[in-house]
Design a protein that fits this description.
about 120 residues, mainly beta, Pnp Oxidase, Chain A, seven-stranded antiparallel β-sheet, 7 strands, globular
Length: about 120
């Protein structure tokens, strides 16, 4: 069983932290009510070991999906290249939660946790 399914806390290594902090856009995949994937481009950052992304409207489909089904996938290019010149990328599987931003009732953020 993957560590994230068992509820284990996983610490991000320096390469993963660098990729998540580099300012690249990420693809966030959530699950629609009918089981189909919903993909959205999000800006991401780190808050400790939490991956966070800001969302200005609580009406967004991705937020509805996370409230119903917290399993998510995040993918992004890291900015690096491998020995063949191909773009390196990072894929993160996890569970998300919605937390209201403490400074504004209209600013929401999604914290992804339970990384594998």
């Amino acid at each position: 069983m993957p560590a994230w399914k068992a509820g284990a806390v996983i610490v991000l290594n320096e390469h993963t932290r660098a990729a998540l902090s580099a300012g690249h856009l990420a693809h966030l995949v959530t699950i629609n009510a009918d089981g189909t994937p919903q993909v959205a481009i999000v800006w991401i950052g780190l808050d400790g070991d939490d991956i966070v992304s800001g969302h200005l409207s609580d009406a967004q489909q991705k937020l509805h999906n996370v409230r119903r089904e917290p399993r998510v996938v995040l993918s992004l290019e890291t900015g690096g290249r491998n020995e063949h010149g191909l773009a390196q990328y990072l894929v993160v599987h996890g569970r998300a939660r919605i937390q209201e931003h403490p400074n504004s009732s209209s600013d929401w953020r999604m914290c992804i946790w339970g990384l594998m």
